[in-house]
Amino acid sequence: MSKPVYDLEHHAEMAYGIGDPQCFKGKAGKPKFKEGDRVRIKDLPDIFYTRTMTYTRGAEGVVTKLVYESPAAEDEAFGNEDSPEWFYSVKFMQKDLWPEYSDNYSNDALETEFPERYLESV
Amino acid sequence: MSSSTRDEVLRHISVVGLMQPALHKQTHAPSPDEIDHTLFRAYTRTPHDVGGEPDIPIVWEEKEEEQWELNTFATCECLAWRGVWTAEERRRKQNVDVGQTQYLGLPYYGRWLLTAARILVDKQFVTLTELVNKIEEVRNRHV
């Protein structure tokens, strides 16, 4: 059996002098969402690898910023960088994430990032 | 859709909190009808996704890194610079592939070190035979 061949230089060459995720700039195409859009986080299957926190799934929030273009963690974690997508910063009210969250702090919010595949319009 | 997803997600978070490493408990291979969707999701989850899990407070201890921990960090960064893995591949291996018991049971840099060895074996930069022989050689040197 022959050894698998890994392209070790590929990522370093791409990111040289500009960094990551800047090296994926312009590679994700047209973004599906814009600042201010109200979105819901999809509960996609979470086997093997994901960085989309369970506690955000099914919750609704507002896009605050298009942050960068990058492969989603699900691809990048296995060395695949073929399909960069837009990442969005989404802001949730804490009360929408945690049913027992105190009314005294009903203004509290939490903001975190998602690749586009996890968002759907509300 | 949303409210049933929320129900499932919150139930999931409360179930995975029960899956701490159980050193003194024997695990029995379950028959398929003993694993419903809730348990399947809990077992196949990614152990690093701990947000919201019920747990007790842990004691904060101010402690500097040990030399082997700093060396481990440098080694892992060198592997990245040489293209052996990306940061996300490293995180997958050290936070998820190790499984729940090792994720919660081993020290932070212990998982880094174990994973540095694992990536080299997985991608056949060294064979497990070579690694085992080397560990054995070093161990014998120090008896």
Architecture overview:
- The complex is a heterodimer of chains A (122) and B (143).
- Chain A is mainly beta.
- Chain A has a single domain, classed as SH3 type barrels (Roll), CATH 2.30.30.50.
- Chain A has 3 helices and 5 strands.
- Chain A starts with 9 loop residues before the first helix and ends with a strand.
- Chain B has 2 domains: 2-44, no CATH class; 67-141, Nitrile hydratase, beta subunit (Cyclin A, domain 1), CATH 1.10.472.
- Chain B contains 7 helices and no strands.
- Chain B has helices spanning 2-16, 37-44, 67-81, 87-97, 99-105, 108-122, 128-141.
- Chains A and B meet through helix 1 of A and helix 1 and helix 4 of B.
Task: Spell out the key features of this protein.
heterodimer, A: 122 residues, mainly beta, SH3 type barrels, 3 helices, 30% strand, B: 143 residues, mainly alpha, Cyclin A, domain 1
Strand-helix topology:
The complex is a heterodimer of chains A (122) and B (143).
Chain A: H1 10-15, E1 38-41, E2 60-71, H2 73-76, E3 84-93, H3 94-97, E4 109-115, E5 119-121
Chain B: H1 2-16, H2 37-44, H3 67-81, H4 87-97, H5 99-105, H6 108-122, H7 128-141
Helix pairs in contact in B: 1-2, 3-6, 4-6
